[in-house]
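Appendix C reproduces, verbatim, an entry submitted by the partner laboratory led by Prof. M.T., so that reviewers can inspect both the input and the predicted structure.
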Amino acid sequence: MTISRRTFLRGVGISATAAMLPVVTAQWAAADPQTTLLTREQLTALLGRGAHLPLTKLTTTPAGSGSGALADAFGAHLPSRDNQVSITGWAGEDDLSTDLALGYDAERLYVAATVTDNVHRPIGGTNQWQGDGFQIAFGDSNGGYGPEYGLALLDSGPEVYRFSDGSVTSPVSDVTLTARRDGTQTHYLAAFPWASTGVGAPGPGGSVLFNAIINDNDGANRRGWIQWCPGIATGKSAQEFVRLAALPESGACQAWITLDEDQVEVGAQVKAAILVLNWDDADRRVEVSIRSNARRISQRREESTLSSRISPSSVHTSCASSHTPTSSRARSKLLSR
């Protein structure tokens, strides 16, 4: 199939067998660069449901604050699943929610966020986690739990606090934070030098383990939090952290699978989304393969339907691209606002 430049395709299938060998069916639509395949809001919600985020290499240093400071980068909306909310009496998006965006360059990882919160009650210092603000953690190079930071906007200004060092020895002051409150929204932009994350800048096709939660305090005590993935608030573990996957600088193609459920029972139904991203400036002809136990079991399809049999305990997706000189059409409206 051909995926047009700067576009994102999604196929969805339903699977269920008692032998844990579901059938995933992906139905692909032709990519027309003149048509919005996914709005930015739909895309950030989709990425917020999973544990994979394409990481864009920035060509200019971001300025300002809030998710709009990284308007050309990929992001996630939280919450996008019910089990991401751990707040008793949570009243919906206006009570607490956030839009995140992440990008990087050779020197830093940038995290931009706009948080909607009806009451802003931050706390500084070692108890920062009990007030409004972020906790952000990184996985180390071996997949273990790395440094953990707090980001908050206090009455005195923005504050960065490091709850745990991991292998990091650089000063906390190397991490910069700008933040401002505007009505019921708080806008953040944090810049993490790579030395402060415990890992180096990823090469093309490399990745970084990352996670974030937003804490909520409406005036008395911490009410709870909204998490991207487990691993910060309830046990410190990077095993379920989000993988920030750096886009290749050429032939930019990524493919992955997300499930609507965190755990799949034998014989249960589960909806899977197969996602393929072409972020290059040329059309690409893409072969999507699904592997089980390192054995290729899917066949290339020239038509618009891909059917494969997989094991949910061992799912791998790969994509290979070759140039298809079929289009010099205008850039897609994928990230329309």
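The first helix runs from residue 40 to 49. Additional entries are available on request from the coordinating office.
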